[in-house]
Design goal:
31% strand; globular; 0% helix; ten-stranded mixed beta sheet; mainly beta
Length: 194
C-alpha cells in the first residue's frame, strides 16, 4: 500500500512515515517523528519532533501529540484530545526571561496497544494508559490507568472494565480478575494490583 500525504500537509525532513498511512489536510509531522503503517491522521493533526506513533493508529481532527508522548499500535484519539508534556509549565523564568527548551523537564506519557481516548479529553504528562483502556469523552486523566479500564470524568476515575472489543463487561474494576464478553468469545484478565 502506498502512503498518502495531502498537499497541504507538512512532513519535515527526518520524519519516517509507514506504508499505507494517510495524512490529511494541514497535518504537521515534525523531524524525527516515527509513524507506523496504516495510520490515519485527520485534519490539523500535529505530531511533534521525535514522537513515536505505532501502526494502525487513528488520530482525529485537531489533536496535538507533543514531544514525550508515545502512541502504541491500534490507538484511537478522538477529536481535540489534548496532551501535556510539562508538569510545571511557565512562559517565563522568575527573572521574566522567556523560558527555553533547556528550562523545562519533559514528562513522558505512554499509550499502550489498543487504547481509545474520547473527544476533548486531556491527558496530563507522566502517565501510562494500559492496553485496551477506554477514556470517555471530556475526561481529565491525571493518573496512570491500568489495562482494560473504563475511565471517565474530571478528574478521570476508573468506572469499570472494557473488553478489547470495546464492550463494557463490568461496572466495577477488579485487579487480576478474568472477564468474558457477553457473547462468550473474548476472555481476558486485568493486571494484578501494583
Amino acid at each position: 500500500m502506498s502512503t498518502f500525504i495531502h498537499p497541504t500537509a507538512i512532513v519535515e525532513d527526518g520524519a519516517v512515515i509507514g506504508a499505507g498511512t494517510k495524512i490529511w489536510h494541514f497535518v504537521h509531522v515534525r523531524r524525527g517523528a516515527r509513524i507506523g503503517d496504516n495510520c490515519v491522521f485527520g485534519k490539523n493533526v500535529y505530531i511533534d519532533a521525535d514522537v513515536s506513533v505505532g501502526s494502525a493508529v487513528k488520530i482525529q481532527n485537531n489533536v496535538s501529540v507533543y514531544h514525550g508522548v508515545e502512541v502504541g499500535d491500534g490507538v484511537f484519539l478522538g477529536p481535540h484530545v489534548c496532551f501535556t508534556n510539562d508538569l510545571n509549565p511557565r512562559a517565563v523564568n522568575p527573572d521574566m526571561t522567556l523560558r527555553s527548551e533547556s528550562d523545562w523537564v519533559l514528562a513522558s506519557t505512554k499509550l499502550s496497544r489498543g487504547v481509545s481516548v474520547g473527544a476533548n479529553s486531556v491527558i496530563v504528562a507522566g502517565i501510562t494508559i494500559g492496553e485496551w483502556a477506554l477514556i470517555g469523552a471530556g475526561s481529565v486523566v491525571t493518573r496512570t490507568v491500568p489495562a482494560y479500564a473504563l475511565v471517565y470524568g474530571n478528574p478521570g476515575r476508573i468506572r469499570g472494565v472494557v473488553a478489547p472489543t470495546g464492550e463494557i463487561v463490568s461496572k466495577k474494576y477488579e485487579f487480576g480478575a478474568e472477564y468474558v464478553t457477553a457473547d462468550g468469545k473474548v476472555r481476558f484478565r486485568t493486571p494484578d494490583a501494583p
